[in-house]
Each structure stands twice: as structure tokens, then as C-alpha cells.
Amino acid sequence: DCSLWRSAHKNRINMAFKGEDHLDSLPLPVQRMHLIQVDSVQRWMEDLKLMTDCECMCILQSKPISIEKDEQNEFILSSQYSTCDNLQLLLKRAWIISTELTRIAQKLEKNRWQRVHSMTVRVNCHVRSMINEYNTFTRDSSEEMHQFEKLLIDKCSEFTAFTERCIQTEDEQILKSMKSCINETLTTIAQYFGQLIELFLTHEAQNLLRQIEFSGSVYVTESAISSLFSLTQEGAHLCRIIAKEGGVVVLFKICRQDCFRCLYPQTLRTLASICCVEEGMHQLEKVDGILCLADILTDNTHSEATHAEAAAVIAQITSPHLTFTQHLSSFLENMEEIVTALVKLCQEASSGEVFLLASAALANITFFDTMACEILLQLNAMKILLAACSDKHIVDTPYSRDQVVTILANMSVLDQCASEIIQGNGVQLLMEMLFERSSSGNSAEVAACERVQQKSAVTLARLSRDPEVADAAVKLSCIPRLIKLCRSPTERNNSDSVLVACLAALRRLAVMSPDGLEDSDFQQLVKPRLVDSFLLCTNMEESFV
């Protein structure tokens, strides 16, 4: 569904721009699961596979019920699915085990031995089921994987035996002495489990990358890239695994073959995900990935979707909050071509999603190198961006306006920028952005609105050193709006960054037009030190009742 991946792009680029990376929320490699909204009965059928009867599973030791030794277990539904489905099932099972291990540690702290034992039995079952399911759809497991499988199963059996002895005694001293052994065993299980999952995922990544690299079939390659993209959505750890196994190299090979042109958007989307980690960035540099992206962006025979996905990769690798972009020396060599192509993409964008990706890339580049702002000025980018903002079908979200105002803020340090702003009615746009409010109340959208307010105030403060811009801002009643943002916490959503930016803009305009302020506003918001005015405004939201 085209609308779904485009929607995903909004979140992804917004995250890249804010510097948010995948966060490891669990101590094990499996970070999170993406649950798909499906019919409730179908969801129940999916979950049923994982709700195994513990006693029966312990007796059967997870052995398949079959006559022939090599016959596949009909009761393991994952064997009916594709590689992508099998991987999702593996990750879901791993997530359940990881969660159970965390809960066992919590119950162990409270000495709830009966609960610890029942949960240990359940983990034992899940571990055996996971290994059995994985071996059902994987026929080329390594010896190292089998060794870790045996170590993990043996340690789980040992753990179950330990906890069983604990529920059979009431002697506090014995339980206290056994608790340290149980904690040690639990830690070992977590380590073995993490290493086994790492081996499983590395093995699957290797298989997918071999399919992509050596299959001449568009269908097989598309399926493998789709599975690989699904893996990248499971967290930074999986992206690191794929990068270490040469994922970036393989995907750029696809982007250099004309026979796979129809797969370029999907391939570039996967590359953007992998490049959120340092290993992916290093690989991109080694294979001249920047040059390849520049070639794609400047090639007019490619589709808009391909150009948009290439822009998404650029946005990811130039994120201002990443600490590992300094080595992108080749980017500077191709920056003018890339910036020119991105400006053209903004100008010709047929949808808000395409504009968002292209403008996000430009916004990040203006942080990446100051020369980019001069190139943008030469390309009349200011005029193009201001014109796009008047089209509500193109700049249709706070996220897009966030990218535009970021570019304006970074360009406003140039003296020539003021005349461009005046000609393009940019002061009016900045004034409108001071009123930016979230319509949905979504936390990400609210944060985007705060950034729009803050950066529009910063841009006004910088541009108001030009008397013509300051005069236009005063005529458009910017001063009353800035005062309201300073004095009313709800207007700025209690944002301190918006408050500081508004105080700075207000002080700059007050110098240029002192008659625009009442005496009380001047005495409280302009005359004192900035920090004193800030404290005064922030204290307005406190209650001393």
C-alpha cells in the first residue's frame, strides 16, 4: 500500500531530523515487536500458537509428532509461512522469552517462588518451541548454533530443576543460599539466549543477502529485500547485524543494475533504515554510496518515487544529531549536484510526502555544511520553498513546515537572505508559523509544532537586523504575538525553547521599533537580562496555592 510506506516515511524522516535513533529497550537483542492490526479472530489464532500447555510440552520435550523422522511437524504453523513470516514468528517468540526472563528476575527479588517456578517452566517451553520452530524452516544451521541450542536447553532444564527444589522447601536459609545460584543461572540463560538469537538473525540476514546478491530473478530479489526491510524495522541491533554482514554493499549493487530499476525505491528505503547505525554509514562510504545516490537523484529517467527514496537516504545520513557523519568526505564533493537535485524535487513534488523527504534532506544538509546555504541562495531555493508553503496539498503537515523553517533559519545568517524573504512574502509566513498548533494532540505532532514556533522566532530574530524585515514584522503585528507566546505557557505548549526564541525575537524588534511595546512589556520582557525575563515568564505557570 503506497500510502502506508509514505506515512512511515513521515515518522522516519521526523525521527532522523530530531536525531532519534532506534532505542534498545531490552537487555537482549530483540527490542520491540510491531503488531499488525488484524481481525480479532485472526489475532487469536496467531497468539494460540504461542500459548502452549506447559505440562504437555515438558513431557513431549517439544518433539514433533510425526511418523517419519524427517517429516515436518504439522502442528508448527510457521512452516506454512514465508521467510518473512517465519522471522516475525521467531522475533515474536524471542520477545516473549525476553519479557518472561525480565519478569522472573522481578518475581525472584520478591521471593515469590511459586510464580518463579511456573514462569521458569513456561520459559523452558518457549525456548524449546522457538528452537524447534526455527530448525523446521531452516535447513542449514551451523554447528555453533546447535552448540548454543544445547547449552540453552540444558541450562533451562537446570533452572527448572532449581526452582522446583525451591518450592519444595520452606527453610529460609536454604532458599537464601539457592537464590544466588538461581540469579547466576538466570544471567547465564539470558546470555545464551541473546547469543543464540544473534546467531539466528545473523544466519537469516546472510541468507537474505545471498538471495539478493546472486538471484537473477526480480521476484526473488524483491521478496528478499522486503524481508530484509522488515528486519531493519526491529531495531538498531538488527541494522548493525545486517551492516556487518555486508548489507549496504549488496543493496548498492542492486541500485547500480538497470534490470532492477523497479526495485530501486524498496532498496533505497532499506538502505535508509540500515544507515541509522554507524556500521551502515562506514559501509556506505566504502562503496561510494554518495556518488551512487547523486547519480540517481540527477538522473531524470528515474521515477519520482526513486528520487524520493534517495532523498530519504540523504536525510538519514546527514542527520545533524548523528555523531558519525564526519567521515562522509565524498559528500562534500557531490554536495552541489545533490542540493540542486533536491531543490528541483521540492519544486516538482507531486505530493506532500515527496516534498517532506526532499525538504528534510535539504534541512539536514544546511546543518551539515554552511556552503549549502550559499548554494541554496544561488538556486532561488527560498522562493521555491515559500511558494510551496502556499500550496496546502504540498506543505500539508507541521513536519513539512518544520523542515522549511529549519532551512529558512539556517539561511537567515546570510545577509542576502533578507531581500529574498521580503520578495517572497516570507515574513507573513513566519508570522503564521508563530500560530502553529497541533490538530490531533499527537505527541510527535505537538513536538513538531513547538519546533516550528521556535525556529520561526529564531528566523525573525536573525532577519530583523535588516530594518526592512523588522518594519514588515511590526506591521504584521508580530510583536503582540511574541508577547502572548512569552506570557501564555499554553500558547507555546509550556516549551522553554519557544520562550527563549520569542524573547530574543521580541528584543530585536523592540530595538528597531520601541513604540510597539507597552511599558509593562518593556519593563518585564525587554529591559531585564534575558535570564531574568525567562524566569519571570516561566514562573507564570507555577501555582503557589
UniProtKB/TrEMBL annotation:
Domain Protein inscuteable homologue C-terminal: 93-545
Any one GO molecular-function label of the UniProt entry: cytoskeletal anchor activity
Record Pfam families: Insc_C (PF19427), INSC_LBD (PF16748)
InterPro entries membership: ARM-like, ARM-type_fold, Armadillo, Insc_C, INSC_LBD, INSC_LBD_sf, Inscuteable
A GO cellular component annotation in the UniProt record: apical cortex
SMART domains according to UniProt: ARM (SM00185)
Signal peptide: none
All copies of domain Protein inscuteable homologue LGN-binding, residue ranges: 36-80
GO process annotations (BP): apical protein localization; asymmetric cell division; establishment of mitotic spindle orientation; regulation of asymmetric cell division
Protein name per Swiss-Prot or TrEMBL: INSC protein
Source organism of this protein record: Cepphus grylle (Black guillemot)
Encoding gene per record: Insc
